[in-house]
Specification:
The structure is a homodimer of 147-residue chains. Chain A is mainly alpha-helical. Chain A folds into 2 domains: 32 residues, no CATH class; 114 residues, Arc Repressor Mutant, subunit A, CATH 1.10.10. Chain A is 54% helix and 10% strand. Chain A contains 6 helices and 3 strands, in the order H-H-E-H-H-E-E-H-H. Chain A has a 3-stranded antiparallel β-sheet with strand order 1-3-2. Chains A and B meet through helix 1, helix 2, helix 5 and helix 6 of A and helix 1, helix 2, helix 5 and helix 6 of B. Chain B binds a DNA duplex (20 and 20 nucleotides) through helix 3 and helix 4.
Amino acid sequence: MGEGTLKSPSCCGGSGVEQDYDVLQWDTREGCEVRQILDRVADKWSLLAIAHLERRTLRFSELRRLIDGISQRMLTVTLRQLERDGLVRRTVYPVVPPRVEYALTPMGATLHTTIQSLVDWTEGHQQEIAKARAEYDSRQDVDAAVS
Amino acid sequence: MGEGTLKSPSCCGGSGVEQDYDVLQWDTREGCEVRQILDRVADKWSLLAIAHLERRTLRFSELRRLIDGISQRMLTVTLRQLERDGLVRRTVYPVVPPRVEYALTPMGATLHTTIQSLVDWTEGHQQEIAKARAEYDSRQDVDAAVS
DNA sequence: CGGTATCCGTTCTGATACTG
DNA sequence: CAGTATCAGAACGGATACCG
């Protein structure tokens, strides 16, 4: 239906003028929750959960073992958020002992693809960043020595 | 100088078998700092700063006014991190009053492109997520009424 | 098994005050 | 102008105990 989204082209430089750009929208609470969603998506545990679920459906305890390092609480919280956002589907089997399975929804799958490109960028620039950090830090040491 | 960084290839999916996948690497401190870099990159203020600097070089106070809502402290912290990671270059002009300019480095520019695709995904699925949330919340209300 | 509820220390952030 | 330093409140995350 009506996409209320004002998805202005991100290109700029067409005109030399300084327009407001829709970048400011990221923060402002009014309108879009891009910021909020981005936080969810970029979350440490969310990323891991999505990555694992992208491979196959998993049970709660399986996820817990796979991610390992995550507390029961955080796994629960993370999965609830992802479920709420429609990225993960939770299925409860009324048996005893209880069996609950988590699976990525189609939307969740597309997100995984997008995330992957960001991860790829990170991996691709890992050394460049590490190098930049080393240089920066040594510069700081010099400054400290001077003062 | 010796960068201890071991950059494992991010490719996967060659075989259909369930291998451990390098997803687990995201968390483990050993090896890659993908997680860490991702946190930086996905940071609220970093995103805004990069987006603004992608248009043109800016002074500290200009950035502060553009992002507006950011505290002086957070702008300083954010810019320092980005500078340390080699994403932003800081230039100080020894004049009075002091003049400091911030510009995106080439690497910072490529990051902007990648981030944009994630933002695009978010914008594109905004309503779907909002809808999923609404449904989830109403389901919760029902559950609450039952109990 | 798959949670929920609670406590509690750490981290993150914003506000404020001061400096070269 | 462009910061730094300090402090207090909020948010985050883990450990523990208990429940259906």
